[in-house]
Amino acid sequence: MTQPVLSVRDLRVEFVTRRGILKAIDGISFDIAKGEVLGVVGESGAGKSVTGSAVIGLIDPPGRIAGGEVLLSGMRIDNLPPEEMRRVRGKRIGMIFQDPLTSLNPLYRVSEQLIETIRTHTNLSASGARKRAIDLLAEVGIPAPERRIDSYPHEFSGGMRQRVVIALALCAEPELIIADEPTTALDVSVQAQIISLLKRLGREHGTAIMLVTHDMGVIAETADRVAVMYAGRIAEIGPVRDVVQNPLHPYAKGLMGAIPSLESDTDRLVQIPGSMPRLSAIPPGCPFNPRCPYVFDRCRVERPEPIQHSEHRVACHLYDQSSAPSEAVA
Amino acid sequence: MFAFVIRRALQAIGVLLAVGIISFAMFRFAGDPVNQIVSLDTPAAEREQVRRSLGLDDPVPVQFARYLARAVQGEFGVSYQFRQPVSDLLAERMPATLELAFCATLFAIGFGVLMGVYSGLKRDSFLAKVFQTISLIGISLPTFLIGILLIYLFSVILGWLPSFGRGDTVRLGWWSTGLLTASGWKALIMPSITLGLFQMTLIMRIVRAEMLEVLRTDYIKFARARGLSTRAIHFGHALKNTLVPVITIVGLQFGSVIAFAIITETVFQWPGMGLLFVQAVQNVDIPIMAAYLMLVALIFVLINLAVDILYTIVDPRLRTSIRQPA
Lengths: 330, 326
Description:
The complex is a heterodimer.
Chain A: E1 6-17, E2 20-32, E3 37-41, H1 48-56, E4 63-72, E5 75-76, H2 82-88, E6 93-96, H3 100-103, H4 110-121, H5 126-139, H6 145-148, H7 158-170, E7 176-180, H8 188-205, E8 208-212, H9 216-222, E9 225-230, E10 233-239, H10 240-245, H11 250-257, H12 297-301, E11 307-309, E12 312-314
Parallel strand pairs in A: 3-8, 3-9, 6-7, 7-8
Antiparallel strand pairs in A: 1-2, 1-4, 4-5, 9-10, 10-12, 11-12
Helix pairs in contact in A: 4-5, 5-7, 7-8
Chain B: H1 2-29, H2 33-37, H3 44-53, H4 60-72, H5 86-121, H6 126-140, H7 143-157, E1 170-172, E2 175-177, H8 182-215, H9 218-225, H10 230-259, H11 261-267, H12 273-282, H13 286-314, H14 316-323
Antiparallel strand pairs in B: 1-2
């Protein structure tokens, strides 16, 4: 098997606060292969965005990486000195943020921002960088790029600005793109365009994409594999088809049950009772145990480790053959 | 853009007219001008003749119109105490004040922006806390006290710098400058610091607050995610976004620096317009006071106009909104 582009091993992220240390990410592991799209879903506060920031090395204090490893094409990057990490950012990992209206510096022309980024990471001359910038804008689908390139961000619509943001993330042909809720701030019709753009770019350049979102529809459309996060841990990870149609983890089941479907005639959507625990009050054992309909004694004391189950990996005691009450797995 | 400038210019004319009325009113209500000119034992007939010859028997609106017409041509009458045209007196004193105000503002911008950026970026460092303390002193100590303290330290104790005057000046046409001689420069240091200290602390505090604000924005995070150098992010992307409020303050303060150089000029016996104004107040020299009022108003109005135009250069979003007024 070829080496994965991104490999995260037992990553832990902590926030040091006055009231103690909060574990935002508590030991997660996953790989993303070349050209693969990994969707990361979960409720707000599950640690999706923090995972993305941790990979690119942009966790703001008081947050810090407390343990584990991040490997980019086999090279460890979580412990690089700041200046070397800066050179990895933008060049080997691109990042796309949620709100295209605020991601671009309002005082600089799009051309200035593109050329600055290109020249930071390559040896291109000013005119060469400009040519590349125009090509990039054309590639992300901006009409008449040679004319539009000298516009200011406020002269573009939201969807066009997100295309510019994507072009900026692509400047140095990174191996990995982290897209943090790239469509949340956009109109539904524009969302579909941006998603198909991301998919196409990933396919054509062989870029690995980590797609962070809480929109299951986007994941189902785009991702090859999906990781379901809950309270700073990965509850379940597997091929997107399997996880959507046949989720194993009770939380994933609840999440998929909350997707309205046009085919089946459901009156009420399934809800997961309760809400995700705050970081300061994560229960012992499995963090999902207070909300889980299948909870049994072991869940309250022992933290479940990820278990391989067909093509999924799931962190749930129900699937541990040695312990699960046999009647529980439906 | 053109329409915008015209609109602003019309507003400026409105402001100047209002100030003109006030300065004209000073002549009317600060005693009878004829009494200021003639001696106590002048016969009444002669007084009437003076009054007629000066046009003071015309209706007030006519006099006001005449006053404005002369003011536009730079004629503000003759100083009571110096018996010279006020415009000559002001022109003679103006270079001193403008040079002082210019150096003070440069000092304020240079140090204010540097210290502000530094304490915005490293707000927990020791030096940043020192800057904060200095700024507190600069804001709370009155100007004359700072001037006197500087004189005491550098002129009386150390004897490095002159305590008063402009030093040697060189005439370039009608402009006399102290910037071309060593003694002129030495004389300029302390008044500039005294005059600029308050502005410097103000600029520093604003730049610091704005930097903290801007560094939290998404576009700075995105710039970091693109791997731009720290230098480019801090001084290109962040600093430029702090400039709009800084320009406002610097612009308005430059007007104040000129107008309120009075105190600094008095402390350092700086031969500028402020000192002239103080003498005029002491001697009820109304033509000088009126002209000074008009001049300061004109400077404020021009600076405001310049600030508005500068905004549009810094922030492209304002250009669009000016082109298509909402």
